Amino acid sequence: MDSIGIGLAGFGTVGSGVYKNLEANRALLAQRLGAEFEIRRIAVRGLAKPRSVPAPAGLFTTDLGELLTDPEIRVVVELIGGIDAALPFVRDAIRAGKIVITGNKALLAEHGAELFQLARERRTPIFYEAAVAGGIPIIKTVREAFIANRFESIHGILNGTSNYILTRMTDAGLDFADALAEAQSLGYAEADPTLDVNGWDAAHKAIILASLAYGFWVRSEDVYVAGIDRLTRDDVKFAAQLGYVVKLLSTIKADASSAIEVRVCPTLIPKSHVLASVHGVFNAVWLRGDVVGEALFYGRGAGQDPTASSVIADLAETVVALKSPRRCYGFTSHDLYGKLKPSEDAVSQFYLRLLVDDTPGVLAQIAGILGDAGIGISSVIQPESHEPGPLPLVLMIHDATFGRMRAAAAEIAALGCVKAEPTLLPVENFT
Ligand code: HSE
Predict the structure, then answer these.
(1) What is the Cα 329 distance to its own chain's centre?
(2) Are 377 and 349 in contact (CB under 8 A)?
């Protein structure tokens, strides 16, 4: 039986999960694959740190370079995270002819074009199932199972922490801050949850999915990204009153001219849509292909074991790749003329929440600005107030471009009767 030497870079939650599950299912994997994995080296930042998963002390090193100089190591698994150390390591690994497996979404979203180009030149694969949606095998699905399709749209709930927070704001009426504190105390959110709540963790995953599906690298600076950190309990409540739930939705959509829209932001979706039933820390991807039609994928987007499941699936791919090398792996550029639609030109319905004075003429001024911009209002909610002072005003808006809608919202924000920064969210009816 073949033995495949592995160098593991990083022994945190996911790295130790890979080690633990390779050990636990060693015999099963060997039977299924006709090959054995041998972890030969584990690179960590410090040797003294206590480990939740035991591994022989002799495997550990603080020198990432040792993973590249051992000729018996044919596969390196990068689970360091971040870009500073991971980027030079992955570059060097490809140059050294190692197969690379990575779960690093930020690395691929920011440097995928360069790394896949290098991998193509060196004819060595990069596998990255764990980088998007944790345990859901969406990369292999888009790359292989749906190879017959042009993708009309891919919508995802790709950040479990945000989804947990939004679920608690919806179901228990919590404020954002209290829901975040709860997510942290349960260990769902990182101690520094910035990338989770500002939308960028999900955006990195959306960039990878969009690039894979459409065959050209989407640049992060061209993607509209907003997080859930400015949402209030009121937004969630008004959305519910209107028949919607708020989700941090990743939207990837092609129009008739193959211009691709990629955005990640809090979005109102109908309560009846299947993605509205994705609660707590779960992730989901709902896509439409021209051949397959609609398809839904649901599962755990984070956590030690689900993410390790995806890394080990990539290890299984290496067995095939080593036996019969292919021309191209991981990322195949195909739509060389693919182009990203500028976020200002994307069209959507909108939810606009304002805080306004309760005086005559306020609604007329706001409606006037929207009317002059050619933007239609589909409904209005203004709860009656028995207290003095400003009160919320919610407008649902017919289709408009983001550019036109943002400009109108800025004009509305400058009115004397508008007392706080407006909240503007797209509404996705999946039509
Ligand atoms: N922190 C992410 C989440 C998982 O909450 O879904 C890793 O990308």
Answers:
(1) 22
(2) no
Q: Note whether 272 and 146 are same-domain residues.
A: yes
Percent of the chain with pLDDT over 70: 98
Task: Using alpha carbons, list the distances in angstroms from residue 170 to 81, 86, 197, 305.
Answer: 32, 38, 16, 28
Condensed to tens digits (0 to 9), the pLDDT of residues 165-222 reads 999 999 999 999 999 999 999 888 777 899 999 999 999 999 999 999 999 999 999 9
How confident is the model over 303-342, as pLDDT tens digits? 999 999 999 999 999 999 998 877 666 677 776 667 899 9
CATH of the domain at 115: 3.40.50.720
Which of 201, 331, 336, 346 is CA-nearest to residue 260? 346
Cα 155 to averaged position of ligand 1 atoms, centre (Å) = 17
Residue 127, pLDDT above cutoff 70 = yes
At residue 299, the pLDDT reads 98
Ligand 1 pocket, mutate which of 201, 248, 307 (most atoms under 8 A from CB): 201
Please identify, by atom number, the ligand 1 atom nearest to the C-alpha of residue 193. 1
Tell me the β-bridge partners of 268.
246, 427
Q: Which residues contact 380 (CB under 8 A, 6 or more apart)?
A: 363, 393, 394, 395, 396
Q: How far is the CA of 303 from the centre of ligand 1 (A)?
A: 8
Is 205 an annotated catalytic residue?
Answer: yes
Set 205, 247, 253, 341: catalytic member: 205
Domain enclosing residue 156, as ranges: 138-300
